[in-house]
Structure formats: C-alpha cells, structure tokens
Write a structure and sequence with these properties.
Elements lengths: L1 H9 L11 H4 L3 H22 L2 H15 L3 H12 L6 H9 L5 H19 L6 H22 L7 H7 L3 H16 L3 H26 L4 H20 L6
C-alpha cells in the first residue's frame, strides 16, 4: 500500500488503493524516482535516435515534468515568488498558499527547465541510464531526509509528510538514495551524496530563518536544486567521472 501511495503522491498515474499516509509512502519515494529516471532514460535514448540530442533532452525534461504533475516545479515557483528580502513570515506564508504563479516563479521554472535541458544535452558520461535514475531517485530521498530532520511550517502537504514520517521509513528512503547514487560509481556517488547533504542543510537553514520551518514548497524547491545539481555534475567536462 505504501508503494502505491508513493506513486499517487509523486505522479499523475491512476493507482488504486494508495491510501497510506504520506510518511509511510515516503519510504518508497526514491524507488518511484528511480522508476521515473529509468523511464526518462528510455525517452532520452529513443528520441535521440531519431532526432538531435537536444530534442531528446527536452523530451526527457518534459516527460518528468508532466508525469509528476508539475509537483516540484510548483514548489520552486512558490518559493521564488514568496521568499524575498524584507517580507515578513506572515506575508511569505500567505504567498506560499496562493496557487497563482508570479513573475519570479515563472522565471524560476524557466531557468530550471533550461538548466536540466542543457545539462542532459551535454552529458559527459557513458552511464546515461544510471545518471538519469540517480537524478530522480536522489532528490526524492533528500526530500524525505529534509522532512525527517526539519520542523514543519504551515499545515499543508509538508506538515502531513513530516508528522507521519517515521525514522525507519526515512532511513529506508535515504538508503535507497545512496544506492541510486552509487550506481554511477563511487566517486560521483559520493559527490552526489555530499552535494545533496549540503543543499539540504543550506535550504533548511534558509527556510528556518524565513518561515521558522520547512513546508511542502520548501521540499519541492530543494528537490529541484538537487536534481539540477546532479545533472550539471554529469555535464561537467572537467570532471573525470
């Protein structure tokens, strides 16, 4: 039941019986991410056979966005619109609850799409399938880790996830994320894990300072940062992976 709930939570796929609490489903978040990464690699490789690599890269990003129901991009956009210098915690929380996307949010989504698209187009590794699996599994493991170690803010999805998340479920998710990272080799795997830990800690500190905790938008925002970081890492021409 938890696995089906994770699919329902993270994708738009119609799955029956997935009624487990978000915290229980979280143990399977990286596994669902790995499945999305594997499917994305299929889109990337098949499309790139018939079209230029840039089209395959764009198709892959579009697939990930659509299959996840723009879940994480929405968090990124809300944070970009809300968390600006000089705003009070109350005003920030008010904007985070607003479903409309403003100028800053639209630009944030545009930059996220461009960064992932270009990173995929210029991947500098022969391990394409493993890289794309890690790029989707590790950020979702990091989301669970962030929810587990953070004080929730607000009363939305982030609170529902954090308040029902057990330590064994969080540990299972983090173990899956680490395993997905190591599929790419121990050196890039350790780099992914270390970078993800730093991004989670920096994001957590920032949200604590601005809104007193971490909400669902903050988790989506962090997922996007880590996904971009991983793809950019494997597009690095001077990194001998």
């Amino acid at each position: 039941m938890g696995f089906r709930a994770a699919i329902r939570f993270l994708t738009i796929l119609p799955v029956r019986g997935g009624d487990a609490p978000p915290g229980r489903a979280a143990a399977y978040f990286p596994l669902v991410g790995a499945m999305l990464g594997a499917a994305g690699s299929g889109v990337y490789l098949l499309t790139a056979k018939a079209f230029p690599v840039s089209i395959g890269a764009l198709a892959t990003v579009a697939f990930w966005i659509l299959i996840s129901g723009v879940l994480h991009e929405d968090g990124l956009a809300d944070v970009a619109d809300a968390v600006r210098a000089g705003r009070t915690r109350e005003r920030v929380m008010e904007i985070l609850k607003d479903s409309r996307i403003g100028t800053f949010g639209a630009i944030a989504i545009l930059l996220s799409v461009l960064a992932r698209w270009q990173a995929l187009e210029y991947l500098a590794t022969p391990r394409v399938v493993e890289t794309l699996i890690a790029a989707q599994a590790v950020p979702r493991a990091a989301m669970v880790a962030m929810a587990w170690c953070s004080r929730p803010a607000g009363s939305g999805l982030g609170y529902a996830l954090a308040s029902t998340l057990s330590t064994p479920a969080a540990a299972a998710a983090m173990a899956q994320g680490a395993a997905a990272a190591m599929l790419c080799g121990w050196r890039p795997g350790l780099a992914m894990i270390a970078g993800s830990v730093l991004i989670v800690q920096a994001s957590r500190a920032w949200f604590y300072r601005r809104i007193g905790g971490v909400n669902g938008d903050g988790l989506g925002f962090t997922e996007q940062l880590i996904e971009i970081f991983i793809l950019m890492t494997f597009a690095c021409r001077s990194c001998a992976w």
